[in-house]
């Protein structure tokens, strides 16, 4: 080290939002004698990592392992510099991976400072994404449809968590989604989760979903419970479309202390609980989809999570998929996919379920977009 490091967080807050990787790299080179520094961000499918500083898109299995496991990794080949991968995450959201080469393996105070710097960079990148297109542009391998652009901007993130829980969601196909969506919000010990099955295609489906989601958010941010959220959204959709279209939605309110779950089942998303070695569908009575009739009323149903439970919510593009005349994916193949996630965190489990769905299609084009949301309750 050439001198005592200045706080990286203060440097990042003073930097332009599109220059955060350069500021972090200069800090690491100056104070930690880092040779190569790279900031890697995931593509929309979470299957590849793209560099923000260097050219190209070189495969890096170690970086992908770090991104998936959210654990640091070090490697050293032929007595050369130590390559270090640090996860970039913020409030449970996987932002990317910091890759750097150091003269020696970091340990003790140095390792702690590097981990703290990675956390500062992750938080800054998460905040800056609203002020610059640089990071979102790096995540795209192709141009999004206008409908997909609306859907991605509407999402709350891809994961969220703390010591009590971890929740993650995945939306496919990434570049041409239509109306399926997920949303969540944390307020103290209460986590609200919604999953919507979009109705229709293209921009009309995206606009319908945007109306329903923002109506529910409007009610939620005024302190309304999930019944009032569903009723306001239903009234908003019916007022705009007169019952011609509607959106099937599952609203959940989870008590992160006691594990109680309040549910409003307004349509077709299915809820599953993986407990011990088994997985079962939660038996909920379907009520009217949002917007089908004016002044619709909804009732709460209740069930309970146990410590260590995994809860999944899947849209009909998952559970009702019947490619090539096969049985519904949700009949048995979905349960097999859920069993394969047993040792994975929620952030990886959603990808496993979606890969199972893609394999089930055996190369055929899906007829519907799809959402999977996975919640691990750790209490």
TrEMBL record:
<keyword id="KW-0378">Hydrolase</keyword>
<protein>
    <submittedName>
        <fullName>Serine phosphatase RsbU (Regulator of sigma subunit)</fullName>
    </submittedName>
</protein>
<dbReference type="GO" id="GO:0016791">
    <property type="term" value="F:phosphatase activity"/>
</dbReference>
<feature type="domain" description="PPM-type phosphatase">
    <location>
        <begin position="162"/>
        <end position="377"/>
    </location>
</feature>
<dbReference type="Pfam" id="PF07228">
    <property type="entry name" value="SpoIIE"/>
</dbReference>
<dbReference type="InterPro" id="IPR036457">
    <property type="entry name" value="PPM-type-like_dom_sf"/>
</dbReference>
<dbReference type="InterPro" id="IPR001932">
    <property type="entry name" value="PPM-type_phosphatase-like_dom"/>
</dbReference>
<dbReference type="InterPro" id="IPR052016">
    <property type="entry name" value="Bact_Sigma-Reg"/>
</dbReference>
